[in-house]
């Protein structure tokens, strides 16, 4: 059973606030990912990491930033939230050639 | 540009019948393909995969077929059950398994 956790599950917040979405996994996976998904659309990779102190931007441009100080933790931060950031954010991890394991996502709504 | 496409946003099937979900891709460098299943308010969960060296992979009621020349794969569910009702995502990766590209999903409804 995959153990990857995202908090909060839902967040409604005003424009201009700083937000951090948490993602933790207990499987010791080296690779971690953040995806953004709008309803009925594909998952877009916005950030990924191959290990501690390694972060890369994905194919979809995002104003968010990430950090990977510990293997198990891959938080995503928005310095100043805007309505255009409203979306679902999914975190995933994987090891080697194994499939990705996903968290249950954070549904973010910026007013 | 979307490299993995699922052109059917929804599919409705009677319980006990076959469900066929389709997926097309454009990048010939992809060599690993996966299907994920997603229930509402949950993250996607891995269902089945296939490597480009194969054209078929079977796991219980689920079979994935790969046609490399057509850049097309499909997921067959036989027999379909109401619990299979979910959104199914197709995904693809190149060698190295470092980045995965997802389709937009097909919502399957299996009617009792």
Number of contiguous helices of chain A: 0
Strand content of chain A: over 45%
Residue fraction in strands of chain B: over 45%
Helix and strand succession of chain B?
EEEEEEEEEEE
Overall pLDDT of chain A: 93
Average of pLDDT of chain B: 94
Structural class of chain B comes to: mainly beta
The quaternary state of the protein chains shown equals heterodimer
Radius of gyration of chain A: 13 Å
Strand segment tally of chain B: 11
- Count of helical segments of chain B? 0
- Poorly predicted ranges of chain A: none
Main β-sheet description of chain A: 7 strands, mixed
Q: What can you see in these coordinates?
A:
The complex is a heterodimer of chains A (111) and B (112). The mean pLDDT of chain A is 93. Helix content of chain A is 0%, strand content 49%. In chain A, the strands form two sheets. In chain A, strands 2, 4, 5, 6, 9, 10 and 11 form a seven-stranded mixed β-sheet that branches. In chain A, strands 1-3-8-7 form a four-stranded antiparallel β-sheet, with no helix packed on it. In chain A, strand 4 and strand 5 form a beta hairpin. Chain A is built from no helices and eleven strands. Chain A has 111 residues and is an all-beta fold. Chain B is an all-beta fold and 112 residues long. Chain B is built from no helices and eleven strands. The relative contact order of chain B is 0.34. The mean pLDDT of chain B is 94. Chains A and B meet through strand 4, strand 5, strand 9 and strand 10 of A and strand 4, strand 5 and strand 10 of B.
Comma- or semicolon-separated keywords:
heterodimer, A: mainly beta, 7-stranded mixed β-sheet, 49% strand, globular, B: 112 residues, 5-stranded antiparallel β-sheet, 11 strands
